[in-house]
Amino acid sequence: MIHIKRFVFNPFMENTYVVYDDNKEAAIIDPGCYEGYEENELVAFIKQEGLKVTQLINTHCHIDHVLGNAFVKETYQVPLIMHEQDLPVLEAVSSYAAGYGFANYKPSRPDKFLKEGDKHSIGEIDFEVLFLPGHAPGHIGLMNEKERVFIGGDVLFDGSIGRTDLPGGDFDTLIHSIQQKLFKYHDDVVVYCGHGPETTLAKEKNSNPFCAIH
Fold first, then answer.
1. Where do the domains of the chain lie?
2. What are the pLDDT digits (tens) for 123-136?
3. Mean pLDDT over residues 37-43, rounded?
4. What is this structure's pTM?
5. Chain centroid to CA 110: how far?
6. Which of 79, 83, 170, 189 might form a disulfide with 111, Cβ 3.0–4.6 angstroms?
7. What's the confidence (pLDDT) of residue 214?
């Protein structure tokens, strides 16, 4: 069974997820923790639940999703896993972090790359890797259709979509990613978004003003 804990970190109100299986093996996805109290909140939950963190995953590498990368890597001695096409996005963060008020940002380097169609496991939980560019050039999502769970980063939100005006973004590409790749999955799939509350594919297929198909 998939267990998911959401934290809301940093001024961008970014969703950081801890995903773990029944055996307590866990991944931290998109760590946005920057302040010490945010790091402490994440560590306290992991300790309280007795989790063993084995990996760090970035759905994409905009600043709000990677602020805690170095902290997680150092604290838990785990690999950073992402899509290779977002490496320039990750590398660019150091050049502008201070301008956004994150003068103490610590850069990180990936250890493994995922690509479209890969099967990726968090403990006993198996995910399919979806390549979903448009918001970021190397954006990925993790789909478990059996349990109707999708970890989606900033591709699709409750009633909205990821912004496409940042470097590497493209509106038409994002809409194609959503409609042609993501919307083919079951309506009951719950989308765990990079910002805001969860939603379902059914809701977004029917009423999202940017990408609805019904």
1. 3-207
2. 999 999 999 999 99
3. 98
4. 0.98
5. 15
6. 79
7. 82
What confidence tens digit (pLDDT) does each residue in 72-86 have?
999 999 999 999 999
Amino acid in position 106? K
Q: Which CATH class is domain 3-207?
A: alpha beta
Checking DSSP bridges between strand 156-157 and strand 149-153, what pairing results, if any?
unpaired
Position 128, amino acid: E
Q: Which two tokens stand for residue 26?
A: 């866990």
